[in-house]
Amino acid sequence: MRGRGRETGIECMASFRVCVLTLFPGMFPGPLGYSLAGKALAAGIWSLKIVDIRHYARNKYRTVDNAPFGGGSGMVMRADVIDAALCENRDSRLPFVYMTPRGQALTQADAWALARTGGLCILCGRFEGVDQRVIDKHGANELSIGDYILSGGELAALVLLDSIIRLIPGVMKSMESLQEESFSRGLLEYHQYTRPRVWSDRAVPGVLVSGHHKRVEEWRRIQSEIVTRERRPDLWHRYAVCGCDGKRT
Ligand code: SAH
Q1: Of 25, 34, 150, 198, whose CA is between 20 and 30 Å from 73?
Q2: What residues of the chain score a pLDDT lower than 50?
Q3: Which option is the CATH number for 177-241: 3.40.50.880, 1.10.238.10, 3.40.50.720, 1.10.1270.20?
Q4: Where are the beta strands (DSSP E) in 111-241?
Q5: CB distance 72 to ligand 1 below 6 Å
């Protein structure tokens, strides 16, 4: 084991290596220890190194934060502490992501791009955030999971990782289903139905039980377009007017 991180998964074999810097190591792997991601972690398809930022504090009180220069409320995570944690644990060949509401909004295209990298290092902020100098020094990609404020970056990191890990080859049985789901072609997915065929006086759309694959495909495409137009005019505009499938340009 390198550095002072706790490692889960079989690092030498893992095709995808994740390092997370946090003040709350107990929050990991959390939900990622279950289901597909959990099985893949146990199988060594991906590995997780959890680094406790507090280990890199320099004084006897293990302080990791200080008051912001310029005044104002709250505390800011110190650049020197984060830098020491990064220098000892980060693989500089892999992307480095700082979770922050000030970052670019995470998209499915980002998840696909990151899933192809071989791994990443994620910094979870707390308090008012992190001294910008260490973010700049390490060339972080600043990513947000939405326009709201969480109390820390840990849940955001778990969301980011969940979106990436399911795309790593070998995690899902069928990669085909990934091509169909919402956002993969710039549209939301069509409605889904299963047994029973009639439930609570509601029958499933007849075409889905017709056995005509071409007609099912066509129905699903049209449903996708209708649902996207009604629910997400922003996506619809990009798809229909700009001819864009939602990937970052
Ligand atoms: N003062 C900051 C918010 C700090 S919230 C501001 O106004 O922009 C504390 C930490 O939670 C952040 O450093 C970040 O790591 C995390 N966080 C909060 N909301 C987030 C979001 N929407 N996306 C990603 N990370 C978030």
Answers
A1: 25
A2: 1-3, 11-12, 249
A3: 1.10.1270.20
A4: 119-124, 141-144, 198-199, 202-203
A5: no
